[in-house]
Amino acid sequence: xxxxxxxxxxxxxxxxxxxxxxxxxxxxxxxxxxxxxxxxxxxxxxxxxxxxxxxxxxxxxxxxxxxxxxxxxxxxxxxxxxxxxxxxxxxxxxxxxxxxxxxxxxxxxxxxxxxxxxxxxxxxxxxxxxxxxxxxxxxxxxxxxxxxxxxxxxxxxxxxxxxxxxxxxxxxxxxxxxxxxxxxxxxxxxxxxxxxxxxxxxxxxxxxxxxxxxxxxxxxxxxxxxxxxxxxxxxxxxxxxxxxxxxxxxxxxxxxxxxxxxxxxxxxxxxxxxxxxxxxxxxxxxxxxxxxxxxxxxxxxxxxxxxxxxxxxxxxxxxxxxxxxxxxxxxxxxxxxxxxxxxxxxxxxxxxxxxxxxxxx
Length: 361
What we know:
Layout: E1 2-6, E2 16-19, E3 30-39, H1 42-49, H2 58-61, H3 63-67, E4 73-74, E5 78-86, E6 98-102, E7 114-118, E8 122-124, H4 131-135, H5 138-151, E9 161-165, H6 170-182, E10 187-191, H7 195-203, E11 208-210, H8 216-222, E12 231-236, H9 240-250, E13 256-259, E14 278-281, H10 286-289, H11 299-313, E15 320-325, H12 328-339, E16 346-350
Parallel strand pairs: 9-10, 9-12, 10-11, 12-13, 13-14, 15-16
Antiparallel strand pairs: 1-2, 1-4, 3-5, 3-7, 3-16, 5-6, 6-8
Helix pairs in contact: 5-6, 5-11, 8-9
């Protein structure tokens, strides 16, 4: 089969198409999936570039991908496709099912004609979405949901406000919708710096938007929020080190902060201790990466099934804003656009999108 990845980590030009062996027969709860569409995320660019630092031993863990045959790291994490074959213990899916899914962080990725997927990290593709739209959802939806519900422990119908940094991004635009339309929070404040990103963020659920290029503390004070609706939660999806102190200044006592962006920062001298604030990280791959098992092994599958229902009902909107043809050049173009830092929402690539070149070549 054909796949797109790197033999050596580095710039966009290192992304190449290569003929590689098909995945082996699925075992346990694995499914072999024919990939119809993929999305591109910030993590893809960091991994490709050799600078991914969320995990201190990441490149040691994936070293066999480039040092053993086929000496090629297939990049990519989420996508959508059709189940070809299932392992003996699979219970949620059957061959022919249309699915959307997340891959394993230390195995070969989704930029390939076929991918091995654990059914616990997959859901049935929403009927209202095509494959490209569906491929845009898994990583951002599960990250946002795990951050807000598992890590921040927000309760449905809480009379509180949340601040979401970078409301126009892939995770931020989904988190805004979950906060406003699933958890029913009365106030969702997001940050955006351009008129088009502010408008997009409002469409995605923000009740208020402030400019992160200005003084966000003063801007939030100027919103004159109701006294009975404290700003209890903050969710950082960009530049943790830049926002940690302003968040400490503006958050209500006993509030909680979650970040998904690795950074070096110091809380000393901030209001975090005086307000007894809680800070937590969220990384979607923690369970499979550390072989951690508990009684919530089905949670990601359940979230994807719920996401499908919410998308079909129109409660959650797909945040896809750019579609490309799924070729090596299409993926390189996607990485370039992401590196420009001006993307709104998500971009995804499909094998049936118009354009030149055979898929995955």
